[in-house]
């Protein structure tokens, strides 16, 4: 086997892998290659909201400083009477110009814009966590947003975990349905994440603190089983095997394809 961190450094300028890069490698090496070259970014309203929610939950002071709440109503307040009287004022050139100016100003001040609805929903979700006792039970005494950059087997893994408690790890996830979260663990390879975190920190207990994103924001604490950790280990090893072969043989990543039977 080649020196994977060295090969990654030579090819991409960074020697480590993350949960996301491993998950991508399992799916498609061409996608992995783009991801490692920083040419592939995963952005969606769900991910944007998840970042807001986690920051308010674990780093509230930072969130209060980083985010700026802006609504269409506020932008319209700065528009002319003629625009405000229009049937669809948000489609006007004046509205779009005002909005672009607000976005540019926020970016120049290293701020992120958030809608009042998303801000309220994230805070309402956290209130539900606190009222049911899960926040006190699982998050009150831990260390938050703990960074790591460690060797795990033949590779270096880097990332952040949400909460490192005394003998356990908690990872926060928002979801459409807590009852269907078990499928999300499989589909989004959260089991790889659990395997990496528990191995790096030498911890056996791993929990997902899951919460629905629709009112009344049902929360759940989901314990990661030994079977799920084992599945994560197998996926981790499969991803490393694919990455090592790709780096060693220097194949064109676009040759990767999927074959299965249904």
Kindly describe this structure.
- The protein is an alpha/beta fold.
- It has two domains: 4-43 and 128-255, Lambda Exonuclease, Chain A; 71-114, no CATH class.
- Helices cover 53% and strands 19% of the residues.
- It is built from 13 helices and eight strands.
- It has helices at residues 4-12, 19-27, 29-36, 45-58, 60-66, 72-77, 81-84, 93-108, 116-132, 134-139, 181-187, 190-201, 226-249; strands at residues 16-17, 67-69, 112-114, 143-152, 155-164, 168-175, 205-212, 219-223.
- Strands 1, 4, 5, 6, 7 and 8 form a six-stranded mixed beta sheet that branches. The chain has a two-stranded parallel sheet with strand order 2-3.
- Strand 4 and strand 5 (155-164) form a beta hairpin.
- The longest helix has 24 residues, at 226-249.
- The mean pLDDT is 92.
| Spatial shape | globular
CATH fold name of the largest domain, please? Lambda Exonuclease, Chain A
Strand content: 15-25%
The CATH class of the largest domain: Alpha Beta
Please identify the structural class as seen in this structure.
alpha/beta
Through-space gap between termini: 34 Å
Helical residues, percent: 40-55%
Number of helices: 13
- Indicate the mean pLDDT: 92
Extended strand count: 8
Secondary-structure element order, as H and E? HEHHHHEHHHEHHEEEHHEEH
Give me the secondary-structure topology:
Elements: H1 4-12, E1 16-17, H2 19-27, H3 29-36, H4 45-58, H5 60-66, E2 67-69, H6 72-77, H7 81-84, H8 93-108, E3 112-114, H9 116-132, H10 134-139, E4 143-152, E5 155-164, E6 168-175, H11 181-187, H12 190-201, E7 205-212, E8 219-223, H13 226-249
Parallel strand pairs: 1-5, 2-3, 6-7
Antiparallel strand pairs: 4-5, 5-6, 7-8
Helix pairs in contact: 2-3, 2-13, 4-5, 4-9, 12-13
């Amino acid at each position: 086997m080649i020196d994977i961190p060295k090969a990654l450094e030579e090819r991409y300028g960074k020697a480590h892998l993350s949960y996301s890069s491993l998950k991508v490698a399992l799916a498609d090496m061409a996608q992995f290659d783009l991801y490692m070259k920083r040419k592939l970014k995963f952005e969606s309203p769900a991910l944007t909201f998840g970042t807001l929610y986690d920051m308010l939950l674990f780093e509230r002071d930072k969130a209060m400083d980083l985010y700026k709440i802006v609504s269409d109503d506020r932008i319209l307040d700065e528009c002319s009477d003629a625009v405000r009287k229009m049937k669809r004022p948000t489609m006007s050139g004046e509205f779009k110009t005002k909005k672009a100016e607000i976005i540019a100003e926020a970016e120049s001040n290293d701020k992120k814009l958030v809608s009042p609805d998303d801000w309220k929903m994230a805070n309402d979700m956290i209130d539900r966590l606190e009222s049911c006792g899960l926040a006190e039970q699982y998050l009150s005494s831990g260390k938050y947003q703990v960074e790591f950059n460690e060797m795990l087997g033949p590779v270096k893994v880097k990332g952040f975990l949400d909460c490192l408690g005394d003998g356990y790890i908690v990872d926060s996830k928002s979801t459409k349905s807590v009852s269907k979260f078990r499928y999300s663990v499989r589909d989004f390879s959260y089991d790889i994440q659990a395997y990496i975190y528990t191995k790096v920190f030498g911890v056996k207990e791993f929990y997902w603190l899951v919460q629905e994103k629709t009112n009344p924001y049902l929360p759940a604490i989901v314990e990661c089983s030994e079977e799920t950790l084992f599945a994560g280990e197998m996926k981790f090893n499969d991803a490393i095997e694919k990455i090592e072969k790709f780096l060693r043989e220097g194949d064109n990543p676009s040759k990767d394809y999927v074959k299965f039977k249904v």
